[in-house]
Amino acid sequence: MIDPTAIVDEGAVIGEGTLIWHFAHVMRGVRIGRDCVLGQNVFVGEGVLIGDRVKIQNNVSVYAGVRVENEVFVGPSAVFTNVGRPRSMRPRGGTFDQTLVRRGATIGANSTIICGTTIGCFAMVGAGAVVTRDVPDHALAIGVPAVVTGWVCECGASLALDGGDTAACRDCGLGFARDGDRVRRA
């Protein structure tokens, strides 16, 4: 379903079951997977790749150079940048820094994701955070600039890895192991 007020440029590929709401603009060369939701006033720049079952809330700008994997949630008014040192008098000629949001990640409302970073699988970026460097898998990153303050399960619950190298999720029971500054399913 594409709302009549939305603009989907010729050459954009939209997967089955995807909903595009009021005043959204999807540019040419964009590929959006199946069963996604793009909220009101979402902008998706030329050549962006978006996986399946992605939810992008209202007023989000996803600029060229961004790739969003499956099952990502992007909160309202989040912004992705694509040029590290922008100048209005210096055209980029379509070359943009690449940003990757891995499977299952959550990006909170009003967050800014600086280009050239990777948000890891099932990572969670808190509302209002400014991500200036990579966020590891399962990390909880908050603040300006964003720093890792904890770890989260695939279901979103906090993991109790304080002082230990293994933990089971208190909500769903999945097991996790920490190895230095990385966390993985056990």
Give a quick summary of the entry.
By secondary structure, the protein is mainly beta. It has strands at 7-8, 13-14, 19-20, 25-26, 31-32, 37-38, 43-44, 49-50, 55-56, 61-62, 66-68, 73-74, 79-80, 99-101, 106-107, 112-113, 118-119, 124-125, 130-131, 139-142, 147-151, 166-168, 175-179, 182-185.
Protein described:
By secondary structure, the chain is an all-beta fold. The chain has one domain: UDP N-Acetylglucosamine Acyltransferase, domain 1 (3 Solenoid). Helices cover 0% and strands 33% of the residues. It has no helices and 24 strands. The strands form 5 sheets. Strands 3-6-9-12-15-18-20-21 form an 8-stranded mixed β-sheet, with no helix packed on it. A 6-stranded parallel β-sheet has the order 2-5-8-11-14-17, with no helix packed on it. Strands 1-4-7-10 form a 4-stranded parallel β-sheet, with no helix packed on it. The relative contact order is 0.09. The mean pLDDT is 94.
- The termini sit apart by 40 Å
Strand percentage: 25-35%
CATH class: Mainly Beta
Please trace the helix and strand order, writing H or E for each element.
Answer: EEEEEEEEEEEEEEEEEEEEEEEE
The residue ranges in which pLDDT falls below 50 over 5 or more consecutive positions are none
- Provide the CATH superfamily: Hexapeptide repeat proteins
Put simply, the count of helices is 0
Give the count of structural domains.
Answer: 1
Just name the CATH architecture: 3 Solenoid
Question: What general form does the structure show?
Answer: globular
- Helix/strand/pairing category: mainly beta
Rg over C-alpha atoms, rounded to the nearest angstrom: 17 Å
The biggest sheet amounts to: 8 strands, mixed
Helix content: under 10%
CATH topology term = UDP N-Acetylglucosamine Acyltransferase, domain 1
